[in-house]
Amino acid sequence: MGSTFEKETEKETKRLVGRISGIEDEEDQNFQRALKFTWSNFKFHSFLDVDSHKVERSINGIYEKLMVHSDVSKAGSWRRLTAEFLNSPLPNTEGTKTDAHYGILSLLLLLSGSPSNTEFTERPRLREAEPEDSFDWGKYLMEGEDVDVGPFPDTPEWSEDESEDDDSQEPISREDSGIHQMPGPGWNNTW
């Protein structure tokens, strides 16, 4: 094997066989048989092009089935996500809605046992985080200003002790509140 493409393909084929078979030892006899079979299929099998119309019919059929079963949110996610995928660029592929797009969707449809019969809640995808602004805007905006921060710069100018009156700290007695109990029968009316 001489070309870079063939070396890369062999490396990826080994990774595929190892991942699917679960055999990590490349010298294992079963690994070598699986590798030979896979490599033979890649080299000599003529794979038919994917039928984009058949994939579209499957996508629409799943959407309709979800709507019939009143899985409206799942159906909406299905329609939106498949359309978004078909209109997204793929690495090493020019254009959208290419055979590669439909080939990937066809593979996923074939691998799924019952795509409309699964629990699904669409999770928000993580976008690349915007870089955090580490610029000190306070320092920049106060540049040239002469501000006296006093002995304790982290303490605000006001404090709770200054804003409260001394009277508010004393408990209210019954006599001060204006509430008097009326004596009931049998009580002496002297207070």
Radius of gyration: 37 Å
Profile the largest sheet.
Answer: none
Distance between the termini: 113 Å
**Structural class from helices and strands?**
mainly alpha
Shape: extended
- Helix segment count? 8
> Which regions contain 5 or more consecutive residues with pLDDT less than 50?
none
Number of DSSP E strands: 0
How is the quaternary structure best described?
Answer: single chain
What do the pLDDT scores average to? 76
Percentage beta strand: under 5%
What is the ordering of alpha helices and beta strands?
A: HHHHHHHH
Helix content: 40-55%
Protein name: Tubulin gamma complex component 5
InterPro entries: GCP5_N_ext
Biased composition (Acidic residues): 157-169
Organism: Oryzias melastigma (Marine medaka)
Give your account of this protein's structure.
With 191 residues, this protein is mainly alpha-helical. The protein is extended, with a radius of gyration of 37 Å. It has helices at residues 4-21, 29-44, 52-68, 72-86, 99-111, 137-141, 160-163, 174-177. Among the domains are: 7-44, no CATH class; 52-112, no CATH class.
